[in-house]
Amino acid sequence: MKHADSRTSSLRVEANIGEGFWRKGPQDSLPPPDMVGAYMRNRPVLGAPVAGRKAWIIGSGIAGLAAAFYLIRDGGMAGEDITILDALDVTGGSLDGAGNAEQGYIVRGGREMNWNYDNFWDLFQDVPALELPEGYSVLDEYRHVNDNDPNWSKARLMHQQGKIRDFSSLGLTKAHQWEIVKLLLKRKEELDDLSIESYFSKSFLETNFWYLWRSMFAFENWQSLLEMKLYMHRFLDAIDGLTDMSALVFPKYNQYDSFVVPLTRMLKDKGVKVQFNTRAYDLDMREEAGARTVTAIRCKSAGQDVQIALGPDDVVFALTGSMTEGTAYGDLDTAPVLARSNEEPGDDSDWALWKRLAAKSPVFGRPEKFYGDVKGSMWESATLTCKASPLIDKLKELSVNDPYSGKTVTGGIITFTDSNWVMSFTCNRQPHFPDQPGDVLVLWVYALLMDKKGNHVAKTMPECTGREILAELCYHLGIADQIDAVAANTKVRLALMPYITAQFMPRAAGDRPHVVPEGCTNLALVGQFVETSNDIVFTMESSVRTARIGVYTLLGLAKQVPDISPTQYDIRNIIKGARALNGNQPFVGERLLHRVLGKTYFAHILPPLPENEETLRERAESELAQLLGKGGQALGKVSAWLERYSSGMRDKSK
Predict the structure, then answer these.
(1) What domains lie within the chain, and their CATH numbers?
(2) Structural element, H or E, at residue 370
(3) Which residues form a coiled coil (predicted)?
């Protein structure tokens, strides 16, 4: 493939809707920067192949696998010319899922998903399904599961040892709502290095909203306010489903078996090579006139130093950092022993490559901003492999469907709001693993605060064995007196992860490198620790986005990666989001909208009001008085206009 040099191309591969007003003109061939849909499914027309070109991908997580996919599908490269290097002995990176019923299953974590992960679904609509017949895709399989089994929760928040806490509303006062609105209005540039707790009031951090938000997305109070803002925009369309989690969709199995297995199988079938037990720790570079070109990859492979020389047209995709690096493991009778601290992670860590790149030039960012505060980025999870016990009996009370039915169980995590650890647990559709026996259930537990003693066990979570964490869970479920019966039928595997929310740590411009850093001719950086225009981190979508941007840029493909889905600008989402923030009650000005639009084509965008039409006029004028002030001339004029407008609409409808 002979491609144009991306540095001289006029096409901006990574679209950014926030750069300025977009208006179609005669010279604009592209649609709006955030347009998604079938029109964006085009594949660029390729020229002649670049003889001898190879692609080297460092890291076999979802970003690395996605890079290989796009190199083949859109870049036209042969799979045989692509090699993935990984320090582990299995693909998937942080998207893991392993074990068996005898020793216990383990998943270190999971990621919530929704409908507008446009890059992720672009990829998986072309990946053959795991279980459906030939011709179906992973997306087809995913839709089949979720369309026939919608997700929701009936016990999202709990407290007082087994009682469901009222979570029907977000519990925000007008002052709290205004804090959120002001954050949405702020420019990103205003929020460098600010923390969530430095902006929000203390009372806000005790609301239903914050318990729902922080437990769902794993935000700590001291983490990035900028990242929270980006999350607010990305999930604005889901705020009305935040309480009962009805805005989410989940795979049939764990995310390793649901996504990594079919994608890896497809890539290997196309000839992609995966070289395990190989840690890339440095890149040799040639710098000429501001251009940086990778000439070799330095690795440790099977304990030996290896140097991989690159050809003149080769391209490199490298993972920066890792959220699951340095994981310490434990079990029912053993607490995990953490080997990582705030000291430098070392050359045997997944941070080594980024550290060495950053030492070469500021364009590669500041990795120490993310790995330098283990206490601030750490939390722990526990995977429970369960047979019948009092724990399962309690689970059945809290579940949407019978846990053994194969349908939605808890509908996402259940959070204990009075837990000192901010503990949550979940049971996804079962079986959670394809080989899981029918009498076994797999539950997942995690907590956010690692420096507080438990309410029942007088230890911090990292100090606890699996049995003690199980006891803390049973306490919050109101079955503490039955812990022995629960432990006798439950296997526990622990994962203490020092960097699991490192990507959320407060940051400023320049702390994260761009996907293709300035001057780089054949290097793209992918994963959770790179800068994109407006997307968030800690999602599979953002990993795929970085890979796609990298492939299109390095190969000079005439194709743009759209900005995040434009749902944040949809007036319907703004209105229903305002309703949700206001405790599901009409927000100030909503009744005025009903007065103006109630008899028009656009009436359907408005949520139904709790009162009848006779009361609407009085309520609407009251809202108008709040906005304009009582007794003013403006109030009288606007009221008269509304009356004439409404009368006119009624006359025309007769």
Answers:
(1) 38-93+272-322+345-365+510-555 (3.50.50.60), 587-651 (no CATH)
(2) helix 368-371
(3) none
